[in-house]
Amino acid sequence: MSLPPIECMYITQEILREGKNGNSNFSFSSSVPMLRFLYELCWTMVRGELPFQKCKAVLDAVEFTERVLEDELGSCFADIVTQMAQDLTLSGEYRTRLIKLAKWLVESSLVPLRLFHERGEEEFLWEAEMIKIKAPDLKVKEVRVNTRLLYQQTKFNLLREESEGYAKLITLLFRGSEDSTQNASTARIGIIKSLIGHFDLDPNRVFDIVLECYELQPDNNGFLQLIPIFPKSHASQILGFKFQYYQRMEVNTPTPFGLYKLTALLVKEEFIDLDSIYTHLLPKDDEAFEQYNGFSTKRLDEANKIGKINLAATGKDLMEDEKQGDVTIDLFAALDMETEAVAERSPELENNQTLGLLTGFLSVDDWYHAHILFDRLSPLNPVAHVQICKGLFRLIEKSISLAYDIVRQTHLQNFGSPSGPGVDNMDTSTSASSSFIDLPKELFQMLATVGPHLYRDTLLLQKVCRVLRGYYLSALELVTSADGVSNAETAAVGYQNPRLHLKEARSRVEETLGACLLPSLQLVPANPAVGQEIWEVMNLLSYEVRYRLYGEWEKDDERNPTILAARQTAKLDTRRILKRLAKENLKQLGRMVAKLAHANPMTVLRTIVHQIEAYRDMIAPVVDAFKYLTQLEYDILEYVVIERLAQGGRDKLKDDGLNLSDWLQSLASFWGHLCKKYPSMELRGLFQYLVNQLKKGQGIELVLLQELIHQMANVQFTENLTEEQLDAMAGSETLRYQATSFGVTRNNKALIKSTNRLRDSLLPKDEPKLAIPLLLLLAQHRSVVVINADAPYIKMVSEQFDRCHGTLLQYVEFLCSAVTPAAAYAQLIPSLDDLVHLYHLDPEVAFLIYRPVMRLFKCQGSSDVFWPLDDNETGNITMAYSESESKDDLSRVILDLGPPRKPIVWSDLLGTVKTMLPSKAWNSLSPDLYATFWGLTLYDLYVPRNRYESEIAKQHAALKALEELPDNSSSAINKRKKDKERIQEALDRLTSELHKHEENVASVRRRLTHEKDKWLSSCPDTLKINMEFLQRCIFPRCTFSMPDAVYCAMFVHTLHSLGTPFFNTVNHIDVLICKTLQPMICCCTEYEAGRLGRFLYETLKIAYYWKADESIYERECGNMPGFAVYYRYPNSQRVTYGQFIKVHWKWSQRITRLLIQCLESTEYMEIRNALIMLTKISSVFPVTRKSGINLEKRVAKIKSDEREDLKVLATGVAAALAARKSSWVTDEEFGMGYLELKPATSLASKSLAGNTVSVQNGSSINVSQSEAAGGRAVAFGTQQSDVNLVKDQIPRTKSEGRLEKAENVSLGKSDLKTKGGTSANGSDAVLSVVLATSQAGTGKSLENQKQLDESSNKLDEHLAKVPAKNSAELEPLSQSTQNEILAGQYAPVWRPMRHQMTPQEIQTM
């Protein structure tokens, strides 16, 4: 093995060659560094490349770069050789040469021997024969010498061994306490060292005495300058021996507090390490934790037993527990348990040295190390000890002192300012430089550590709350003023990024509230001031953050026995109070509830809410008792209500799937009454919850919105209005209010305030406005509730839809009344185009929302004439028929709400309206008529003069009653004066509003008179006008609400009375009753069926009014286009009074038949809806005794049905029918001589059989979704023209033969080829043939049976020839019509011909 080659920079081959040859004249060309040269020279000789003897020659020939002494050269040689000797990889040959080199260097006197003795290893020296002792023996000798020289000395450890030296030391230490200057300390250090050296004192004993003197004088900081002269490692050992002494069994004295404080000071000054002293302390952590766990478990069990029922208790014990004496509450029960627990744990603080060291850290204000110990000892809950808690309080007080001074000074300045005193006026950040408040992060660590035990110092708790509020407001102010303050000024305050500082401040405040302030509140006995201070901090946070803190509040504290005991006690006391709460003791027990809620708001309020859900009768007394609560408790109460709503595991509907659960109804009623009574209730959280639920497609909780609007704004959705109330709904605001306010005064200040609060909660100034999102989500939910409803029965779906629809109506009415003026409402509402196409609302809902906005359109140039009033100046323009003038007129009507909304022209609105329906719908309707229908209200068409006069009479009677009161006391006189003023004000309003209403109706009628001629004149398909009008206008709106149902009937009557061209009133009623009424009954919900019944009632009432007297008929109908026989020709021949009687007979029979069909149906909804409709029309229908008896039989059968709700409805209907039985007339009396009736024959049985077949097969009706955007309309497809006047009218004469043959011919050639809804909508031929058939006579003989059979055969032959593609379309026609013919009840039904019949053709028939 060879040595690793090294790169020789100076000992080159030439030098080696010259050196070997012995040339004494060679020399180096330049000077070289000494160390590198000697290193290369030594390695060259060890490898044998240069003899030892030539070394001197080389050294003589070289010249070094630095000046080298002879001793320095030898020292370098010794270092190089000893270093090479330590290389264990040298081979034996090289090591031998190295040893010889060392010997030669010594022999040649280049290296002194002593240098090798100093620096060489023992083994190398032994091999080089430089020592005479073996290497192991030399090592042992070295150790002994070092021990004798360094460690063996004469030192005195005991005081008695050198009493003089120690006496002088102690005297010096105590005397020097008076002077702690730098010079004095330096002098003392010198004297101590002299004493140690002179008297041979043990330094460790001197250090111990110094520490003991420091322990006795902890405030003397001069000792801190003495300690550094001693080794740091000795301090922890000396202190450890002191702690171990007090751990002995024979020592009964507890560890003195001075020792803990001394140790804490040394750790704080970093003279010793915490871990080095922590190992000497007892008991060990695991042992202490195990002991405390047993103690804590015992206390938790005791706390959980509070309020539990003892099943083993005797009756006497139970009776004593439920004694009916005075109710008392113990606010200090939990605190007493805490005091007992602290007293029980007091020995732990004396025996646990780690807790003692913690108190030492707190006493010297060393939070850094105290925090470390708190974290280590957290399982022991060290803060529960009063001494530790007080030390922590002292640190907290010290940390907030400067900030509290700023808060206090600012508050005093504001107190003396003109703005007035009050905490709310306290602005802790009036200037970013002068009153900026910053709190150290250590303060928040302390508050998190102290946790709920801050209750022990309520004064400090309130200071902390005020400082936190000032801290957060200061951060907010810093962000607010950041834009106006330069970066230099902001940096001067201490923060380059104010927003980051605000985020940090918010996080710290939230953490402190959740970990310290809120838990501490539970242990403060009935102190509302503390709760108010905490609320002042909580109020700075958003409700989302507050609710999160409430949710985390109880979860984090369930492991604390004291808090658990406080909760259990509060829950028990609350239940005890609620058992006895009544109106008589409301004041006393209400205050007790408030005292409990001040300390444990979450527990008490949750318990109360649970009781209210179970017992609805408690709502009123509990709401009254809540007047003593603070704002914090009101806020927690709202969280509890939302928590109960969102809590899973409970059904929100009863088992029947229809009605709301009792707990939900009780909770909604409670919340409504509470928010109405107390103005401090915040509602944003609840509204956000409802919005979130609607986004999920869940709308059951909308009952809370209903209750809120009802209680706070007195806006109630009532489906079953009385006749007087429904009539008043057409009147002015005052009349509507008088009819529906149920005794609530219109100018009730409390009601006005609560209404405004509800509005402001939905439309706050700074928060997100939820009014419109809630409205849109509610409208969208109404559209999808039928599709997405998870219900097994259709009646459940119906109930959900009605509930959602009622909430929508109530909410829209509230918005329209609360958001004033109307322009403010218009600013909030999206445009009609957005409502329909962006938010996909049904047209009827979109118009419900947008209708108040439509009434803000006005003509340019007139500031007080709004649509739909008539502008007299533009009357001539609106009557013009030219297209250019019409467009110019539309451009004059404009809606200008100001920025940021763009002005909207009426023509643009009509353009939006035109996109709401399929294009084919406009073949039979016009956008003007459509917009007019949906834009008007009942107020525009009808003046309920009787209701106005009735209310005015009531007010006069009230005035008269006031004047007759005998009490003449001053208070009574003042009260009467106020009442008179109020009544007189109502009288004046009613009188003026009646006059204004009459003017409004007259003006609207003038406008309608101007516009009527262009509504239907331009429609190319006049045959479908009535069907489209019913489908797109009447049915969607008449089923929307009761006032809308009346409005639809009034609008139709207005169209008739105006003489609207191409609108045929008789055909409208005919299509309504004969074509569309039955499918509408089948597809309506419960409330919609009632509204449809109300619309039918109003329609029949008008029809019966016309039928009652021929003079009335001639006056109101005889010359109207609506009664034209050919309504394509408005000026054609009119329907005679006799013909109208016959058509009326047909309608009566048709209604009877379809009601019987529904009542005999197996479908629940058909039966229910038929009963509801019969209830609504019972005052005008049935009229004939025969129809009434037939209906009575069906209703009587339903009265024995097993379904209770149907039985109740049937019972009511039966009573209504029985009440009107005396007014029923015979068929002859109904016909008034215009009907030819035949006596009853044996064919009655056949007629009944035919009717049964007809009922089973039904009519050919196709119910489909409307093509309108999201619309719920009913479209009627290809259906046989049910001009079944002959079905209800009795036998014909022989002259019918020609007519029947003509009918069969037309059936084959026209009706079977008719597509879409042409035949269903009717034609001029339909009406004319109906009337012609009536004129031809109504007798029917048995001789026509052969003709009926022939007609049936022809019909069968024709149906066999119909192409397959039309078979599905014609199947219902073939079944129903054929069965009717074969049953012998009806004559063949006339079908409209494809071409338009002329009057001459009609006459020839």
UniProtKB/TrEMBL annotation:
Domain THO complex subunitTHOC2 N-terminal span(s) in chain numbering: 593-668
Main location group: nucleus
Family: Belongs to the THOC2 family.
Annotated organism of origin: Herrania umbratica
Name of the protein: THO complex subunit 2
Annotated Gene Ontology cellular component terms: THO complex part of transcription export complex
Coiled-coil residue windows: 945-1014
GO BP field: mRNA export from nucleus; mRNA processing
Compositionally biased region (Basic and acidic residues): 1294-1303
Superkingdom to which the source organism belongs: Eukaryota
Every THO complex subunit 2 N-terminal domain range: 36-414, 438-591
